[in-house]
Amino acid sequence: MIQPLDIGEYRNVYEPGKVECASTEDMRPLEEIIGQERALRALRFGLEIREAGFNVYTAGAQGTGRRTAVRSFLDELAKTKPRASDWIYVHNFENQYEPNAIALPVGKGARFREDMKQFIEEARQALPRAFESEEYAKRRDETLQALQGNRTDLIARINQKAQEAGFTIQMSPIGLLTIPVINGRPVPEEEFINLPDEVRAEVQRRRDALNAELRSTLRQVQDIERQGAEAVKKLNHDIALYAIGNLVTELKEKYADVAEVPDYIDAVQNDILENVQIFLGVPEQQGVPPQFQALMREIPFRKYEVNVVVDNAGAEGAPVVFEQNPTYQNLLGKIEREVQFGIFTTDFTMIRPGSLHRANGGYLILDVEDLLRAPLSWDGLKTALKTGEAVIEEPGERMGFITAKTVKPEAVPLDIKVALVGTPMIYQLLYRMDPDFKELFKVKADFDIVMERNDENSEKYADFMCNLVREENLRHLDREAIARVIEYGSRLAEDKQKLSTRFATVADLIREANFYAASDGTEQIERKHVTKAIEEKIYRSNLIQQKIEEAIRRGIFLIDTEGEKVGQVNGLSVIGLGDFAFGRPSKVTASIGVGREGLVDIEREAALGGPIHTKGVLIINGYLNNNYAHDKPLSLSARLVFEQSYEGIEGDSASSTELYALLSALSGLPLKQYLAVTGSVNQKGEVQAIGGVNEKLEGFFEVCKAKGLNGNQGALIPASNVQNLMLKEEIVEAAKAGKFRIYPVRTIDEGIEVLTGVPAGVRREDGTYEEGTVNYLVDRRLREMAETMRGFQPTMAK
Predict the structure, then answer these.
(1) Average pLDDT for residues 287-312, to the nearest whole number?
(2) Which residue in 392, 427, 433, 440 is deepest, having the highest Cβ count within 10 Å?
(3) Interacting residues of 416 by C-beta distance below 8 A, sequence separation 6+
């Protein structure tokens, strides 16, 4: 018969003496990411390779520090990379609805904006001075004087011809009017129609002849006026060019090495020369409020502004952007609007960048769950990565809805690496369901939830604690507190040879321990503070566990922790409440009878058993066939059930428990009720590892403690689960006092021997078992049931 587990195996104690320093105050802060060598190797590859599609998906469980690790890694990597370009949007003088995007060397974006602002201010001063000068007035008069003389001569000739023909010329809004003169007096139209027909006909004949000459002469006057306007325009152009020429030349020379900027400056100059009048002042309009007058004076100059959408002047290396709210507009940019005179308007100055623009030339970090929750964001990101361009457009326009006319900014070429942070489940879903995903995110960085518990990693664990307390100004941990936290890391990992990498949970524990240390007024966090933090965290969440234990203590839930019974055993299960999980003992019973139904799982029949639990019951049937049906058919009708279970049951960790109950019922041997059982079984009778072994053992221990420890209580666990034991110190102390014990079993035979105190029995060459053993009694009962079934003749009703 197997012996109880050595007490040293109950918990992997970390000796405080292994901690080299007296406290975290004497340690060096952690300068690396620990326990994630595989993920860091993948990150380094994915972020260094420049080929398209090698973006990174960082997969890992919540609290493993994925986000922090990626951010820290990229911050360091980005410092070794060159700074990214600045990006600006400027007015497109050929099409105002399609602003131009221009890349400038880092730091020159804001400088160019200020230079353009100063240039326009100087132009607004220089142009009025030039056009108000005496030299301009003189040249303008000289230009117009000769043309004015020609115009005067032509008008005089028109008047002379009109007098000779008996008419006078009169100006009107609709042109020149020829009014007949009779007897030296102009004749109005109402008198003219009353003249004799012969007179009117003669006057009309002379008028037609005169009008023909007037039209010819009037065309000559208009040509002279047009020549005058063109001459004035050319003069204005020359004067304006002279006034701003030096300013333009100086600006172009300053940015001669920047592509597109000199051409843009030329376009600005041409537009100024074409619209000199706005620089000379806009006359005030009657009835318009003063505040609007000022706005109307400034609006024409807005097209000369420079909209700096990306400014990397203050960066130390390539940009690293972590977008915490990746909505479509936050990711890809937006075009704002403002109200002018009651109307929504927009222009290139209201273009706002998205995270893609700000991270261009560097790295963008996104939480994939937030990204997928934001409408259009995932599709927008994929389009940008596939096309290599960041396009700013309205969401409604992207969806094909009708939208108001707006600007359509030029796309910005992308040179970016995107790192998505999410869970392995989302990675699998995207990989299977979205064909674009595997082409755009070819690198997977898998963050593990555990790492090896060795001296090197334990030291790094302590360095992590040092980092945390220094960054958050907490109390330092002494040597024993450090050891206690390391033990807690193994408990989180559910493996005595591992440490959990759920650093968020470990950090919360230290913060809470710091609170209790502050309450006690101690200078450092001690072991008792860490222990209290663990206990208080459990206490805040274990109300349901205590209610169940109370129900067991009061006999509402029937759980025996003393004595022996046939066909009944205490099974162990785990109840998860999200932030807390605990073990609960359940009574498992088996009943048998003669029949052909075989093994019936009552939980399945009641639709309470899950598929894995059902598989476990079927495996039990296979075990019975493998061990007892070589020379006879199984004529068995058995029922298995979790008593007082009113919710669904899933998993196969109770399959060995159910098998023990069934073997007890068949053999007639009672099982020790002060021993609980957990473990799954295969058809060969091997007991297999299960999950939640610590919670299960602690749950049964609490029940035994509530009902009274008698020195016999304990539990059977799979031997392969010994490596997972990190039981609380109270159980270790109880075991040292001989009040609780654990039996590691490898086979059903080992377990049934412990539970019954009777040898299991080994099958002999002739297929029989040693007399008096458990297997002998089971085999004999099954044989009797088979013979009973064979000799049974049902009575036919008459």
Answers:
(1) 76
(2) 392
(3) 356, 359, 360, 361, 362, 363, 364
pLDDT, tens digit, 9 for 90 and up, residues 543-598:
888 888 888 888 888 888 888 899 899 988 888 888 888 888 888 888 888 877 77
CA distances (Å), 320 to each of 79, 105, 358, 376, 681, in order? 10, 18, 8, 23, 52
Which SS3 state, helix, strand or coil, does residue 65 take?
coil
Neighbours of 153 (CB within 10 A): 12
Whole-angstrom distance, CA of residue 176 vs CA of residue 319: 72
Dihedral angle of Cα 640, 642, 647, 652, to the nearest 10 degrees: -70
Question: How many Cβ atoms are within 10 Å of 634's Cβ, its own excluded?
Answer: 18
Nearest 10 degrees: CA dihedral of 237, 238, 240, 246? 140
In this prediction the pTM is 0.78
The separation between the first and the last C-alpha atoms of the chain, rounded to the nearest angstrom, is 57
H helix intervals, 165-284: 189-192, 197-254, 261-274, 276-279
Count of beta carbons in the 10 Å neighbourhood of residue 497: 13
Nearest CA-CA partner of 676 in 772, 781, 792, 586: 586
Give per-residue burial for 184-197: e unless 16+ CB within 10 Å, then b.
eeebeeeebeeeee
Residue 368, by phi and psi: left (phi above 0), alpha (psi -120 to 50) or beta?
alpha
Q: Decide if 740 contacts 714 (C-beta within 8 A).
A: yes
Q: How far is CA 329 from the centre of its chain?
A: 15
> What's at 188, amino acid-wise?
P
